[in-house]
Amino acid sequence: MRQTLIRWISIVVATAAFIMPTAGYSEIVEEKPSALAMTGDALFARPVLFGITVIGSVVYVASLPFSALGGNAGEAAETLVIGPAKTTFVRCLGCTQVGRKEKVVTLGDEGAQN
């Protein structure tokens, strides 16, 4: 009985640990990621997203005859391969938005370039 209770508590704590960061990112977009965000992205998010890209590619190739007959091969490619690949490779480390991070030039930087 005690082991069952400990197991359920462990499951609830692990689930909360995975859900809480997701809820925080859904409300606030932070474009100056912290060292912790960059580390977590490099060690956990990128390998998982790479795996999703590989699995999506396999599923896309396997379902290509059916999606081609259905006329949605492009949509399937976008959802299964291109979207995860962009999230994996075209996103600054620790950022939440897909795309390259633009260099922001401030007034102090402009004077230094002259």
Structure description:
The chain is mainly α. The protein has a domain at 33-89. It has helices spanning 2-27, 35-70, 73-89, 107-113. It is flat and about 55 Å long. The N and C termini lie far apart (73 Å).
Write out key terms for the chains shown.
114 residues; mainly alpha; 4 helices
Provide the structure class. Answer: mainly alpha
Strand content: under 5%
Number of strands: 0
Largest sheet: none
Query: What is the CA-CA span between the terminal residues?
Result: 73 Å
Query: Which term fits the overall shape?
Result: flat
Protein name: Cation/multidrug efflux pump
Write the layout of secondary structure elements.
Layout: H1 2-27, H2 35-70, H3 73-89, H4 107-113
Organism: Hahella chejuensis (strain KCTC 2396)
Protein name: Cation/multidrug efflux pump
